[in-house]
Specification:
The chain is mainly α and 184 residues long. 73% of the residues lie in helices and 0% in strands. It contains 9 helices and no strands. α2 (17-38) runs antiparallel to α3, α3 crosses α5 and α6 runs antiparallel to α7. The longest helix has 22 residues, at 17-38. The chain is globular, with a radius of gyration of 16 Å. The two termini are 18 Å apart. The mean pLDDT is 92.
């Protein structure tokens, strides 16, 4: 994957291509996470895995925006969802947004988001034998978590294929990611 793909501006969240663009971003970030792991850069890999999951959540939020708009109770929450949550996916609200997505049919999303957030902590704090600042005692635990999250991302993206505008570029990114996962 070229760096140019990641550098393209995202379509506006109101445009249908937004979901495809965010899925492509998720797949590319996940591939970078595996590349960093292969070089022994575990903290960088954790950060990329987190970014991949965050992009994936943005895609889901946009894909299910109509259902989510019915779940929220106030106009202020609807406006926040459209203007802030979908384009930015604030880290501090990822668990709440994942719960909302779970409520509209994405079972099991909360533990995966918790894993992504733990990897985010690891990126900044590194290994922590006392597990006070990071949920991972060593690099090996974090590496396993990166691979686990990337595998889950692949599984969930594949489930979305029939529902999104699927391009050759997305197919290529998914295939490259799966090949990299199977190569170990």
């Amino acid at each position: 994957m070229s760096a140019e793909t990641l550098e393209k501006p995202l379509p506006k969240p109101t445009i249908e291509d937004y979901v495809s663009a965010r899925l492509l971003e998720a797949l590319i970030e996940a591939r970078l996470a595996l590349d960093f792991l292969s070089r022994g850069l575990v903290r960088n890999a954790a950060g990329k895995a987190f970014q991949a999951w965050r992009a994936f959540l943005a895609a889901l939020l946009r894909l299910e925006l109509d259902k989510l708009m019915q779940v929220v109770k106030t106009d202020e929450e609807r406006r926040w969802l459209m203007e802030r949550a979908v384009p930015r996916v604030p880290t501090s609200r990822m668990m709440g947004l994942s719960k909302m997505l779970s409520d509209v049919g994405y079972a099991g999303l909360l533990p995966d988001t918790a894993l992504a957030l733990s990897l985010h902590d690891y990126q900044y704090n590194g290994p922590d034998p006392d597990m006070a600042l990071s949920k991972f005692r060593d690099r090996e635990e974090a590496s396993i978590a990166v691979i686990e999250l990337v595998n889950e991302l692949v599984r969930r993206v594949e489930e979305l294929k029939p529902r999104v505008k699927w391009s050759d570029e997305l197919e290529k990114a998914l295939r490259e990611l799966k090949d990299r996962l199977s190569a170990g």
